[in-house]
Amino acid sequence: MKQRKTRTLMGIILTLLMLIPVFQDSRPALLQRFEYDLYDIRLKHFAKREQDPRIVIVDVDEKSLAEQGRWPWNRAKLAQLLDQLFDHYGVAIAGFDMVFSEADSSIDLEQLTTLLLEADQIPDLQHFLQQLNPDQRLAAAIRERPVVLGYSFDRSDRQLQAGDPGIAVIQSSPLLDQQPIPRASGIIASVDGLHSQQAYSGFFDNPMVDSDGVYRRVPMLQKYQGQYYPSLSLAIWLALFDERQVIPEFEADLFGDHQALVAISAGGQKIPVDSSAAMLVPYRGGKGSFPYISATDVMNGLAEPAQLNGAIVLIGTSAAGLLDLRVTPVSSRYPGVEVHANILSGLLDNRIFSEPDYTAAVEIIQLLISGILLSVLIPRSSVTFSTLITLGWAACLTAFNLYAWQSLYWVIPLGYTLFLVLLLYLFQQTTGYFFETRNVKQLAGQFGHYIPPEVVRELGRQEEGVHLSGENRDMTIFFSDIRGFTRISEQLAPQQLTRMMNIYLTEMTHIIHLQHGTVDKYIGDAVMAFWGAPLKDDDHVRHGLDAALAMLQQLPIVNQRLVAEGLPEVEIGIGLHAGIMSVGNMGSEFRMAYTVMGDAVNLASRLEGLTRFYGCPLLVSGELCERLPGYIYRQIDRVQVKGRLEPVELFQPMSVANTEDADLAERVASFNQGVALYREQQWASSRERFQQWLAHTPSDSVATIYLQRIAELEQNSPGKEWHAVFSHQLK
């Protein structure tokens, strides 16, 4: 009991220690990586794995570079691309996942040739140069069209100021300024000639890549010069609904100390974000979750109109040489433009995963319940059952987590809790093994000479421990003795006597151990043993009787060994009784012994002594006989022994009742009928039964005793008050 409480307390302390990194938000890197891996597994397993035709990626791929020339293209080509998208294909909106941070001074020779051929007179040089200016050509293509340009914030010490981010979506506010939203010190945006022509723009850089370099979350806002600007995907979303403002939403954090950002409202949509204004990217699947159309096919009018009509178009690149490939949970080479596409798709479907601030409370509750549950149950369970408990609880945690993921779009941390479950399981099993090993060693020292090793091991697994101070128990007690041992010992040399006793006691003790018995002591040639302690045994009566019968069966083999070594054969007598007795450590301050005492013990000793008088190798009490049917018992006598007022019925177990020796069962039944007739003073009928027994077993002492008694009683009638009780007052 004490060990169990100690293990429970240690498990709870371990749980509380594991909570510290959660409160401090400083989990070990290895466990954080495990959490990331579990997140990625869930994301890939529940991915939609089907294309979203509402969003189309116009791809500057290898084919486009081969046909249109190396990057960067003359911006007149990009203007041609926009003209085709809006005028020929009728797209809803277009966003550039690229930045035009420097003026384009290149000349498109094809455009120059066309202008010269179409001119009917020498053109005005300034007007002619304006027509050839690729930036103005692209600016004209952007004008009054729903086009969103991208830019990149800079967080270096250089504080680059190339271009302008456009219109902020949230002005500075004290509450928002308290949030850990990424802050930029510089910007790399498109040249003013392009930027002034469009109303919407957004950043495409990601300062919140996880520690393992994977794109799992993207900030929807960044702070620059005291104002907040949208990401490219958020800017496209606002442009779809012709909105220019974003409304932040706050809730009290777990401890109520301050207000935490939990969502932003844009375009009629509530977008769950964390306090850093970042949202988890709702990846639909691997690369190709959206239709890809080569940019050169659009420019040449070869694209399928049905794919582009009314679509949201993102213009980006998947070409490896242009370095826009990212590491994501679904692929290690994932086009950056498709990250924005996944965010827009999630917004359209209202399928946005989130880690609300209260998920920290959920995780803490998970950890506390797991710690208390396993710390209480595992020390009280076997290894098998505790393993099943641990696996079952881990399955429940996982099932709840998957339900929250799939149905509520909640991302509840799972890895740290599963690690605690595993740690507690291993810790409890290890400490349990340590305590069990120590218990077994202690018990082996106390009982190793008396009980079998398997019983010692079982005692070590007992939760309640072993009571040594003394208690009353229902047990079976056994005494055995060698007949004529004094005469035998006088005939043998000390070495021979030692050898004989070693052979005999080893075999008999082995049988007691096989039947889960405890050897109390050896008293010269006598053996005292009991069943039912220190390990409780609900079947102790059967085990004791089976041990006694097995000894009688083994005795001829023992005698063969003795004769082979020149030693005399032995005969034994066994007394067996079951009842309530005291068991525990008894003795003095100088010497203690784990033993039994009581009237039941004395009676078993008397039964062993009576085996000499009746010439029976085994005698058991009537109480034992009643408690253990299923054996063939020969009724021996009703006696009064020294120290007991009540008569005792004596029986000799002959065999198990289900043996095939039907003749034995019939003869024993006839003998028992003879005893009953004897007690009814029907002398003639009783004599006939005993004579029949002697005809089959001439040397039987019990039948001879009854015939002698009948002869005496026929001459001296005992009277009607006679109870057929024979008194034995000697020990």
Automatic annotation (TrEMBL):
<dbReference type="InterPro" id="IPR007890">
    <property type="entry name" value="CHASE2"/>
</dbReference>
<dbReference type="Pfam" id="PF00211">
    <property type="entry name" value="Guanylate_cyc"/>
</dbReference>
<feature type="transmembrane region" description="Helical">
    <location>
        <begin position="385"/>
        <end position="403"/>
    </location>
</feature>
<dbReference type="InterPro" id="IPR050697">
    <property type="entry name" value="Adenylyl/Guanylyl_Cyclase_3/4"/>
</dbReference>
<feature type="domain" description="Guanylate cyclase">
    <location>
        <begin position="476"/>
        <end position="608"/>
    </location>
</feature>
<dbReference type="InterPro" id="IPR029787">
    <property type="entry name" value="Nucleotide_cyclase"/>
</dbReference>
<feature type="transmembrane region" description="Helical">
    <location>
        <begin position="409"/>
        <end position="427"/>
    </location>
</feature>
<dbReference type="Pfam" id="PF05226">
    <property type="entry name" value="CHASE2"/>
</dbReference>
<keyword id="KW-1133">Transmembrane helix</keyword>
<dbReference type="GO" id="GO:0035556">
    <property type="term" value="P:intracellular signal transduction"/>
</dbReference>
<keyword id="KW-0812">Transmembrane</keyword>
<keyword id="KW-0472">Membrane</keyword>
<dbReference type="GO" id="GO:0006171">
    <property type="term" value="P:cAMP biosynthetic process"/>
</dbReference>
<protein>
    <submittedName>
        <fullName>Adenylate cyclase</fullName>
    </submittedName>
</protein>
<dbReference type="GO" id="GO:0004016">
    <property type="term" value="F:adenylate cyclase activity"/>
</dbReference>
<dbReference type="InterPro" id="IPR001054">
    <property type="entry name" value="A/G_cyclase"/>
</dbReference>
